[in-house]
Design goal:
GO terms for molecular function: metal ion binding; superoxide dismutase activity. Its EC number is 1.15.1.1. It is a single chain. The chain has a single domain, classed as Immunoglobulin-like. It has 2 helices and 7 strands, in the order αββββαβββ. The chain has a 7-stranded antiparallel β-sheet. The longest helix has 18 residues. It is globular and about 35 Å long. Bound molecules: 2-acetamido-2-deoxy-beta-D-glucopyranose (NAG) (3 copies) and copper (II) ion. The site of one 2-acetamido-2-deoxy-beta-D-glucopyranose has 4 residues, from loops.
Length: 186
Amino acid sequence: MQLLSFVSLLGAASLAAAQTAPGNGTVTGKMGDARPVKNNPVGEVWVATFDGSQGVKGTVTAVGWTLGVNYTVDVTGLPEGKGPFNFHVHAKGVPVNGTCADTGAHLDSFVRGQDPPCEASLPATCEVGDLSGKYGKVDAPAAKKTFNDPYSALDKIMLGYIGERAIVFHDASSARIACANLVKKA
Ligand SMILES: *[C@@H]1O[C@H](CO)[C@@H](O)[C@H](O)[C@H]1NC(C)=O
Ligand SMILES: *[C@@H]1O[C@H](CO)[C@@H](O)[C@H](O)[C@H]1NC(C)=O
Ligand SMILES: *[C@@H]1O[C@H](CO)[C@@H](O)[C@H](O)[C@H]1NC(C)=O
Ligand SMILES: [Cu+2]
């Protein structure tokens, strides 16, 4: 009886160790977990417009909320057979020549890096810009998805500021298939 409970204790201990192994929850930003943003201008709207010239057509909208930002992805034209698609806020905007390669890496305000991948159950430990890592990928041909990200900021002085940065869609090979800048709606 005593031995049995000792054995089950050991089992529980190794299970706990497995759950906190590197790559599952122990990796966070060098500046700590992303901080929830509570002072965004509620209702302020930013839109990334995909005009179809890169195949993807539609919008990714970011609306200020009392906790971070509400995003709505509403796009068509995701290429069949190339998904599922990741999408991120990247660190830089799209240059005038439209090259998605020049949008930098994911927005990573708390300096976490991409490896190991984001653990969706622990979104504060993920890169701020890794929206599909936190809230799920989308698939071809059309995607409509709404979610709240507590860590996205609409104020330039805040960590996690997403304004004027690019939303980038990647295919399953991680190629950057389409990008557009988040622009403040007048
Ligand atoms: C991480 O741990 C959680 C439970 O804490 C588990 O649900 C999840 O599957 C684990 N993820 C990985 C990648 O091991
Ligand atoms: C933002 O999303 C929350 C739910 O996550 C919802 O209660 C709220 O009404 C939304 N706000 C706006 C401005 O869309
Ligand atoms: C596009 O513009 C960026 C920024 O000015 C530049 O670094 C890059 O070389 C350009 N790419 C092409 C293909 O013209
Ligand atoms: Cu990306």
